Amino acid sequence: MDHYTRESFILTDSIGYYLARARNMVKTDIDAALKSLDITAPQMGILLSMSSNRATTPFELSKSLAIDTGLMTRMLDKLETRDLLRRERSVEDRRVVNLFLTDAGKEIADQIPGIVPGVFNRRLTSFSVDEFNELRRLLKKFTDA
């Protein structure tokens, strides 16, 4: 079933519009909340993915966070310059670069869970538990398609 047609499509009433708007609003809120740590929302994703061992290479991070490899490289450069992570070539395969959080990177990653939930909770204030669960279920369904 098609939910949109050429005649019925209105950009500012589309799923894409609302998803982009929601993403931008949440990113802005998270950036503000993380200002004291001097990191951005995308950098937060990298640090948390690494601290939970969900990703250990630039490719894995790019895939997991849906960030193109060029932008990922630039973000990793900034985090490495700030001594929050380090890169090491794999001894088994010199083409592979492994990433490791430094002590400073681990310290910042440990602080994020005490900050970011408040950002989401403020946005979800008017949601019931059922609405929250349904929103999460539908977004998962949408992103898994």
From TrEMBL:
Residues 12-144 form the HTH marR-type domain. Gene3D superfamilies: Winged helix-like DNA-binding domain superfamily/Winged helix DNA-binding domain. The keyword Ion transport does not apply. Pfam families: MarR. SUPFAM superfamilies: Winged helix' DNA-binding domain. Keywords: DNA-binding, Transcription, Transcription regulation. GO terms for molecular function: DNA binding; DNA-binding transcription factor activity. It comes from Pandoraea terrae. InterPro entries: HTH_MarR-typ, WH-like_DNA-bd_sf, WH_DNA-bd_sf. The keyword Transcription regulation applies. This is MFS transporter.
